[in-house]
Amino acid sequence: MRDEDKGMSRLAVVILNWNGEGFLRRFLPRVVEYSTGDYAPQGCEVVVAVADNASADGSLGWLSDTYVSAGDDRVRVIALDANYGFTGGYNRALAHETLAGFDSYLLLNSDVDVTPGWLVPLAAILTADARVGAVMPKLLAYGREDYFEYAGACGGFIDALGYPFCRGRIFGTVEKDRGQYDTVRDIFWASGAAMLVRADLWRELGGLDEAFFAHMEEIDFCWRLHRQGFRVVVCPESAVYHVGGGALPATSPRKTYLNFRNNLAMLYKNLSHRLFAAVYFVRFWADGLQALGYLATGKSSFAGAVFRGHADFWLRMREKMVRRTGSGGYALPPKEVLYRGSVAWRYVFGWRTFGNMM
Question: Which CATH superfamily groups domain 11-242?
């Protein structure tokens, strides 16, 4: 039973690592220092866990030498036996006995630089309102700190056609942070780069859908939170700096393929079949035009990624989503977090910032 007055006594910051020794060396000491001890939320025990997705570099050796052998009880290491991707890796890590008994999990990318006491305002929001299922900090760009970061900026949203965008980032246009979005507000989705979730809800919803492997899985998870009546919130008082593209850069056609395939799968999973059919009719032509744009600019591999994304959705992903959704229980999230227009249409006609869109 959830109690609005109940505080969190145990919080685990969980970093999923795959061949990221360089990021661990650069950022993990700061995560440990700025999340534990005097920087932890009052009355809350915080540990930092690194779950390794069978890295082939020196990640595990460095973790052992730096923390395990030193007997640092602030850090725990979970060595997985294979690379299960973002979804499978987190599902196995958070179900591991090492993390049993925690009230909440903070999913954190290995390429994120945190700030002193960054957990405090996030934990306060989760503690104050039992209806909040997940909360994220403001994501700024590492090395370009006065700009938002692509992967989540200041909170994620989605439009009527299923295109994700952020408060501070519309498609490829990233805004400068002038404090224009420094208010706590409900959002559609929290970025998987830094997302604090209630442990009981994580287990109740079955964690991340492993059919996605990587990309769109956190949006699907947040959509399920909304369907259960919970809120997703952004807290700009907490700010972190994200390198972005650490495991799969934006210049990778595979990233494009996964984004298109998984976006369609997510829509199919969470919309009624009738509404999905209407959305897909428009998306077929809109995505086709984007593929033609790639071809016109000499990016044939990206055009192929769009077409493969659509083909693999119909040939493989669609059946996996059917098994997970059943036939009922569909409900759109509250209108406050779902943009019922077309962000793509606005973008084409020059509206490139979040502004007063919602």
Answer: Spore Coat Polysaccharide Biosynthesis Protein SpsA; Chain A (3.90.550.10)
